[in-house]
Amino acid sequence: MLPPPNADQPFMYVSALEGGHLRIPCDLVVDDNSQGEFVSCPSLAFALRHSETKSWVVFDLGIRRDLEGYTPLSQERIKAVGFAPFVNQTVAESLVKGGISPDEVETVIISHLHWDHIGDHEPFTRATFVVGEGCRELLASGYPMNPDSFFSSTALPHERTKFLPLSDFSLPIGPFPLALDFFGDGSMYVIDAPGHVRGHINILARTSSDGAWILLGGDSAHDYRLITGEKDVAHRIDSSGCVRCMHEDKDKAVENIARIRSLLEIPRVQVLIAHDSKWYEENKGSAFLPGNILPLAA
Length: 298
Prior knowledge:
Pfam families: Lactamase_B (PF00753). This protein has helices at 72-81, 91-97, 115-118, 135-140, 224-228, 250-263, 277-283; strands at 12-17, 21-25, 38-42, 45-50, 56-59, 105-109, 128-132, 161-164, 171-173, 176-181, 188-192, 201-206, 213-216, 236-237, 243-244, 269-272. The two termini are 15 Å apart. The chain has 7 helices and 16 strands. The chain has one domain (12-283): Ribonuclease Z/Hydroxyacylglutathione hydrolase-like (Metallo-beta-lactamase, Chain A), CATH 3.60.15. It is globular. It has a 6-stranded mixed β-sheet. A 6-stranded mixed β-sheet has the order 9-10-11-12-13-16. It has a two-stranded antiparallel sheet with strand order 2-3. Helices cover 18% and strands 24% of the residues. The longest helix is centred in the C-terminal third of the chain and has 14 residues, at 250-263. By secondary structure, the protein is α/β, with parallel strands linked by helices.
């Protein structure tokens, strides 16, 4: 179970943000899918506002409009795989449309450093950027020092980036053994979410003062049927010898997905992943800033 609320429990208002769209090859995501099939999906980001302090947190920055801002190897992979990204509205523009200037955002938490989540940090001139410790090496050894890196050393502003060492994840919460109480008041937890890529983190936030929660799962899974257990994570070696899987460590990713799945058995807990096209189509409008994702009713 998740911890019950305290008296006058602070919580987070959570809104979805547009962050662009891409096509994902199905055989990279779900086992038993035929090669050549794609699913069109969003790259969701989220705005969270503390109920008492009113401070803003943004989780992930979606896709850049200018693909030239990515490393050469990332640009090549985007074309070769057929991701075909398009951005009608960046995360910064989504905030402005919702009435919030990026300058008002105090914290940007990045789930991980893949191209469709790092977006463009430049509009967020005052924010502290928070990432898992595993991102430190990826940035330090990134492009241009390593011309063959998928990761750019300038993906985040160095002077305003905070790396969370694993020792900071000192609390177990619900099914998750490693969590950080971000504000120290039980309103929002950063969750260590291993398997996808080094430094991958999720957010588990209260969405009401009386017991509702939401898990923002980033790329813990790329298809909601993996969360429910209807499908298995894709992992195979193709004819060219390449591993077809979206996770660096499939076994750890499957363990993390199983933990997330157990949240579905707890009343009033929502689970969202970054690329959930079904949720996006069903919730366009009121769930996006300036609206909120409504907490599940008791």
